[in-house]
Amino acid sequence: MTVSGAKSGERELVTFKNGDLEYCIDIMQVREIRGWTPATPIPRAPDYMVGVINLRGTVLPVLDLRMRLGAGEKSDPTVRHAIIVVQDGDQLIGLLVEGVSDIISISEDLLHPTPDVSSAIARSFVTGIVTLEGRMISLLSLEQILPKVEREAA
Question: What is the pTM of this model?
Fold first, then answer.
């Protein structure tokens, strides 16, 4: 269900895909969505760090979300890929995704806890599972996408 504004007691989420998996993040953490822009690599950066881009005078680190989540090989960006610019505290971070799908509005009863059978790493990145219209969408925790030690170095 696509919406333009959330009702009281509902959350708005931006959904996107990486491979066959669908993820979402809180719309309040999204600053903008841009098309793919080639990034400048950073020497000795973690594998999931694509590099940095110039975002209106700000150096923006861009992470390959697929690699960061351990969900596959490094992305080979195409025109269909997007960079979701998110704000984590006082830092802007770009997340490279295969494509943005939708903006959805959900009530809290559609958000379920991450299953206990998931690995500890998966549970640290995924804070819940949204069930909507036959879809299962993993709600990501931006606080865990870029660990604190690396956040200070970025």
Answer: 0.82
Q: Compute φ and ψ for 51, nearest 5 degrees.
A: 145, -150
Amino acid at 77: P
**DSSP code for 4:** S
Sign of CA dihedral 100, 106, 108, 109: negative
**C-beta atoms surrounding 18 within 10 Å:** 23
Q: Where are the domains of the chain?
A: 10-149
- d(Cα 103, Cα 106) in Å, to the nearest integer? 10
pLDDT digits (tens, 9 = 90+) for 77-104: 888 899 999 987 888 899 999 989 899 9
The CATH-assigned architecture of domain 10-149 is Beta Barrel (2.40)
CB burial of residue 104 (10 Å; 0-12, 13-18, 19+): buried
Comparing CA positions, the residue from 5, 8, 15, 7 lying closest to residue 132 is 15
Q: Hey, what are 30's tokens?
A: 């999204």
**Partners of 53 in beta bridges:** 60
